[in-house]
Amino acid sequence: MIAVAFTSLLALLIGVGSERRWGEGALTLSKRLLDLLAYVALPVVVFFTVNSLAFTKGVGAGLVFGWTERIVVILLAWLIGSRLLRLPRAGTGAMMIAVGLANTGHLGIPLVALLLGSEKVGLAVTYDTAVTAPLILIGGFAIGAAFGERAGDTGLQRLRSFVIRNPALLALIAALLLPASFTPAWAHDLATFLAVAIAPIGFFALGVNLMIEHDQSGTRIFPPELTAPVAVALGLRLLVAPGVMLGLSNFVIEVPTTFLIQAGMASGVTGLAIGHIFGLNMKIIVGAIAWSTAIIVVAACVVGLVGGL
After folding, report:
1. Cα distance between residue 169 and residue 153, in whole Å
2. Topology annotation, domain 2-292
3. Domain locations in the chain as residue ranges
4. Where do transmembrane segments lie in this chain (predicted)?
5. Cβ(296)–Cβ(107) under 8 Å?
6. Does the pTM exceed 0.90?
7. What are the pLDDT digits (tens) for 170-212?
8. 3-state class (DSSP) for residue 102
9. Within the chain, where are the H helices?
10. Alpha-carbon distance 149 to 299, whole Å?
């Protein structure tokens, strides 16, 4: 967990330093890396991971509950963003992305290993693959296409944006249709490597975008402002989402503790790529990722230190 926190912080600081040193050049590089993440790395990871996935008996309810808690917080974000905060479409969509996409991979898996032991990592990977990955490809890209400023004006144009700008969805469909023999050992290793590499790319982009924000005097805002949309996103992602999972586990079918931890993960860095591609409010996405990640990492380090005493 310490290694994860260090790697993420280092990538973020490099992003911050790059923006301060090269300005627009760093922003351009950040956009190119996000394109690489969305159009190359993510499709490869999805295909070779899903194609080789074997579900174990007894986790089905937890995966259904995982989808349920995500749908609940996404709908709440839409309702609060559009009706109560009266945000423009790009702002409401950004809130929905911030609460619907969680960092259950780079952050959630090592946190499960820290709290529950390495024998529970398999369940964490299953949750990440069966809940988070499809939600990114279907829910995340659909939200981006529906609410983004660069997705088109008509319904047909937005549908076209969803399909054309979402090659990872095609990879998911192919992975579900083709037999597991299409995934040799080396391909699965490649997917694992790319999955690990996605997070530093995301945190580099996060660091660059953190320093893009300015106040009216031109002074950079760091840390990002804890605005009402960001605060609501934090509450939905870190409190309501795991609360829904806990309630379903207590009153319907008990699910593994691993799934409860994964349900409360920070906002996922892949939200940056979706926000960039479709033109969502990056300030909300950046703020939610930065604050939620900091909260989870600090809490995890404290738990780790206490547990080691």
Report:
1. 22
2. Na+/H+ antiporter like fold (1.20.1530)
3. 2-292
4. 36-55, 62-81, 93-117, 129-148, 168-186, 193-212, 232-252, 259-278, 284-306
5. yes
6. no
7. 776 777 677 766 666 666 666 666 666 666 766 676 666 666 6
8. strand
9. 2-22, 24-36, 42-51, 60-79, 89-100, 108-116, 121-127, 133-134, 141-147, 155-164, 167-177, 185-210, 228-235, 241-251, 257-263, 270-278, 282-308
10. 36
